[in-house]
From TrEMBL:
Lineage: Bacteria, Pseudomonadati, Pseudomonadota, Gammaproteobacteria, Enterobacterales
Annotated protein name in UniProt: LysR family transcriptional regulator
Single GO MF annotation: sequence-specific DNA binding
Pfam families linked to this entry: LysR_substrate
Domain LysR substrate-binding: start-end pairs: 1-144
Family statement: Belongs to the LysR transcriptional regulatory family.
SUPFAM superfamilies: Periplasmic binding protein-like II
Protein source organism: Salmonella enterica
Length: 150
């Protein structure tokens, strides 16, 4: 629709994370294929396919299927389970910044990255844009930028 404007609020990267205890038990993986033997944690979806799709050096792509030890709709529960050593988890980097800094979680296969999520705001053209909507979009853009910088 030509009367709509789309603005990027955030470019949200994900990574795979595990607890130091799980890495001590499983070893440090050197390739995505090794992850199929790791215990995984999964966000519930309508599909019953549990996989990590990863993109690596020189445009390489890997798909890792796993049997989850835990499935939930709660991303905070996934983070807590990963910290407890229950399994490997894919989460937004912003969600685990404190745990990474504290050494409670470690990024796994850092050169391989799940697809990035771009968060957009879509609203009517600026001509009819209410000041409150503009203020909200500006606030969200600034807050996401602040979270990335911290």
């Amino acid at each position: 629709d030509s009367d709509l404007v789309m603005r990027v609020l955030a470019d949200r990267g994900h990574r795979l994370f595990a607890s130091p205890d799980l890495i001590a038990r499983m070893g440090i993986p050197s390739a995505p294929a090794e992850l199929s033997h790791w215990p995984g944690l999964s966000l519930a979806s309508g599909k019953h396919i549990h996989r990590w799709e990863l993109y690596g050096p020189q445009g390489a792509r890997a798909e890792v299927h796993f049997t989850p030890r835990m499935i939930t709709t709660d991303m905070l529960a996934l983070r807590e389970a990963a910290m407890a050593g229950v399994g490997l988890v894919q989460l937004p980097v912003l969600m685990v910044k404190e745990q990474l800094a504290a050494g409670e979680l470690v990024a796994v296969l850092e050169e391989w990255e799940p697809r990035r999520e771009v968060i957009h705001a879509v609203f009517p053209s600026r001509r009819g844009l209410l000041p409150s909507v503009r203020a909200l979009v500006d606030f969200l853009t600034e807050e996401y930028a602040r979270m990335v910088e911290e």
